[in-house]
Amino acid sequence: MSLRPLKWENDALTMLDQRQIPLRTEYLHLTSSADVAAAIRDMAVRGAPAIGIAAAYGMALAVLHHEELHIADKRLRASRPTAVNLFWALDRIQGVLKDGFAAVLREAQAIEAEDLAMNLAIGEHGNTLVPQGARILTICNTGALATAGHGTALGIIRTAHAAGKDIFVTSCETRPRQQGLRLTAYELTFENIPFRSIADSVAASLMRAGEIDLVVAGADRIAANGDSANKIGTYSLAVLAKHHGVPFYIAAPTSTFDPTLANGDLIPIEERDPRELTESEGVRIAPENTPVYNPGFDVTPGELITAIVSEKGVFYPPYNFA
Ligand code: MRU
């Protein structure tokens, strides 16, 4: 059994509220596209594929409740800017909108089912890159919670573990929202996969000490040349990996590829609320009015990526996904 962030039931979208994990397991019952857009924006659901699936169900709710569909679509598109899966899923829904609720729901369910299948294939392809006994570094949460199930980068880890490879995971805390500490640690515990969590800044000395055999991360958008946007801090891991001769892999389904963008400079990067940095659990920890720069993502240049794993296989540089 795998964790499941989203479930369509009784004409509503049931969403595991990821903001509460690991302390509480609470579900939101969403009945409008505005509810879903707010849940994406506030990160009750997060992770590129899960955001796309949620938005598709958001449109099913919009059709079911006779909302203004162009407004629903626009609001969902405005919820988060970087993960292209959001726009990819909404484009797919646009293609069936004229056919009514049953068709839209069917398409949303197909998007979810296809994502799970893609994740499992990524796991199999990625597993070929994982040596027996590998010590693997990862960042953010790219597991079942971030997808329809199984996961991308964490899906590779899960598949390698299931194959009996005796792996050990080091999970970056992932500043400032701590998806690694809260969600990846939760999933690895749930799956009984041996791991430890670290503050992001520990990665350098671990690599220097020879304690990391490979890095694997997810992506929110991959440009035609392989430049890959992912959670802030991923780029520094890639630079560190290059310096220390450690393979650095990106894992993502083709719904995360954006062939319309020639390179990563064109990927819109979300800038988030300064309070993610200046507050801890709602309590201010920085001097009042501290100026803050808080991007949610960075871009790793394709030339720093040893290989990109999708459901279609393992791709090596120079990348050309146009
Ligand atoms: O801000 P988040 O938690 O949505 O960021 C998630 C990531 O950066 C993931 O690595 C990416 O979306 C891939 S999830 C399979």
Please render the helix and strand layout as text.
Blueprint: E1 6-9, E2 12-16, E3 27-30, H1 33-41, H2 48-64, H3 69-77, H4 84-94, H5 101-127, E4 135-138, H6 153-162, E5 168-172, H7 179-190, E6 195-198, H8 203-208, E7 214-217, E8 221-223, E9 228-231, H9 234-244, E10 248-251, E11 257-258, H10 275-278, E12 279-280, E13 283-284, E14 297-300, E15 307-310, E16 313-315
Parallel strand pairs: 4-5, 4-7, 5-6, 7-10, 8-11, 10-15
Antiparallel strand pairs: 1-2, 2-3, 8-9, 9-14, 12-13, 15-16
Helix pairs in contact: 1-2, 1-3, 2-3, 2-4, 2-5, 5-6
Bound molecules: 5-S-methyl-1-O-phosphono-5-thio-D-ribulose (MRU).
What is the general shape?
globular
Low-confidence segments, given as residue ranges, are none
- First-residue to last-residue Cα separation: 37 Å
Helix content: 25-40%
Mean pLDDT: 98
Ligands, deduplicated: 5-S-methyl-1-O-phosphono-5-thio-D-ribulose
Strands side by side in the biggest sheet: 6-5-4-7-10-15-16
What would CATH call the homologous superfamily of the largest domain? Translation initiation factor eif-2b, domain 2
So what's the CATH class of the largest domain? Alpha Beta
Any guess at the CATH architecture of the largest domain?
Answer: 3-Layer(aba) Sandwich
Number of helices: 10
Element-by-element helix/strand order: EEEHHHHHEHEHEHEEEHEEHEEEEE
Radius of gyration from the alpha-carbon trace, in angstroms: 19 Å
CATH topology of the largest domain: Rossmann fold
User: What number of structural domains do the residues give?
Assistant: 2
Main beta-sheet annotation: 7 strands, mixed
Which structural class is indicated by helix and strand composition? alpha/beta
> Count the strands?
16
Tell me what portion of residues adopts beta-strand conformation. Answer: 15-25%
